[in-house]
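[Meeting: bench + compute handoff]

Bench side (C.D.) handed over the final construct sequence. Compute side (W.E.) agreed to return the predicted structure before the next meeting so the bench team could plan truncations. Sequence as handed over:
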Amino acid sequence: MKYDFDTPVDRRGTGSLKWDVAEGELPMWVADMDFQAAPPIREAILERARHGVFGYCVVPEEWYGAYQSWWARRHGFALEKDWLIFCTGIVPAISSIVRKLTTPAEKVLIQTPVYNIFFNSILNNGRQVLESPLLYEKGEYRMDLRDLEEKLSDPQTSLMILCNPHNPVGKIWDRETLGQVGELCRRHHVTVVSDEIHCDLTDPGCEYVPFASVSEACREISVTCLAPTKTFNLAGLQTAAVSVPDPVLRHKVWRGLNTDEVAEPNDFAVTGAVAAFEKGEEWLDELRLYLAGNKALVREFLEKEVPDIYLVPSQATYLLWLDCSALPGDGEKFAAHLRSRTGLYLSQGGQFGTGGEHFLRLNIACPRERLKDGLERLARGAASYSALFPHA
């Protein structure tokens, strides 16, 4: 490989949310990577820093062009410039959209288990969470379209947040399924916010389907959240975009983002995004191969060393969803045991909503030796945890 993903980077002492843990602990929970950003991105940021003046800035033409070119080239979807609005992050954008497009006490639908911060964006703004749990059958996930339609038909349901690809289950939703979602939401006058932040982190040979590309119905009722932050490990730069094809809906979203003051860029947010989309493609393709190797390592290790933990098949993201239902207790108890006994810090599945209670989420975006350390800790922790319940 041209790029180095094996050399560990010490992130302690850098104000890292992920690595602000006790000495000896191994955090593999929050969704950022332990890899340095691609060299062209780092070079572009350093070059901008060398200029030395960091005043107010605007969103330049290059920013729009970078998004348009990337989605056309990588995903076969033509984003129009007028659709795009800069924002400081997908979570701020979702929270702003919830406030602007719904009224207090209305219901916002999510498909659980799902990214836990969706709950915050809904509840913190005085709206109700309406869960439509995914169906989990024979170790695979699919949407429960019957349940989805029933809940979309509730007059109090005005917004749906779609996770595409889905975090934490690693599912790429197919075109037919997304088309059905679009038709149901159009029929029941529900706007769709599609969080597509993980869209570029697909397995080699796998491609995601932009929700707005599926049909006219999907395009007209949707707000799509996009960002280079997960793909290129730039979360700390606070850079993202929303794409809204319908002009009336776009005006509402634009007003919401500007009212909440989350639509103004900083120099590094623009510089990093443009460099990522214009010069990061080769790095990303190597990253995807490396992550695929990490996934294979986890699968082989669990099958051999920890057969009581099942790895749910994943086509996207670097977050693996581990089915621990064969172990006693629930995911929260097992996660606490792992951290206290081995130092391995994983996300317990219950925080992702209904259906996640017996799962853990594992972040594999790290050097392979660090991943092996985490897997050994997982095996030791599972053995000592099971020993606590000899008759289970």
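W.E. noted at the follow-up: Residues 214 and 227 are 20 Å apart (CA to CA). C.D. will use this when planning the next construct.
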